[in-house]
Amino acid sequence: MPNKIHLTVATVVVKDDTFLMVRETQEGVKVINQPAGHVEPGEDVIAAAIRETLEETCWNVQITGYLGFSNVKSATTDITYYRHTFLAEPVSFDATAELDPDIDSAQWMSAAEIRDPSNVPRSDMVVKVLEDYEAGRVFSLEMFSNGL
Fold this sequence. Notes:
Elements: E1 6-15, E2 18-26, E3 29-33, E4 36-38, H1 45-57, E5 59-73, E6 80-93, E7 103-109, H2 111-115, H3 125-134
Parallel strand pairs: 1-6
Antiparallel strand pairs: 1-2, 1-4, 2-3, 2-7, 5-6
């Protein structure tokens, strides 16, 4: 049994009915995902979501809501990933930032493009949080007691 938790964050960033997505290659397969990554030890989850979004897309964002907590177990590594997903709005594009080397590209996609079978989601969570957003299942950030 692994002796550490894989706590991750992701953001659903919305602009003009499009969503900020990343393209990456996982085990030789081109996939799409929301900007996402691991929370560093001692890091606040909201700060981690902002940081990971910038690192993976070059966009500064403001977190506006919470879409929920989910988990998925990797079939190949047997690792369970626990994911907090946040809703965000774009603030500014940082032309001086460099994409994380694990990211092939970042792009704005419509919901139809995300669901297009030619775009393989990294996990089932990619479409699930899109559905949560579309259904209005957005929670207040007041539930987070950061820095206490």
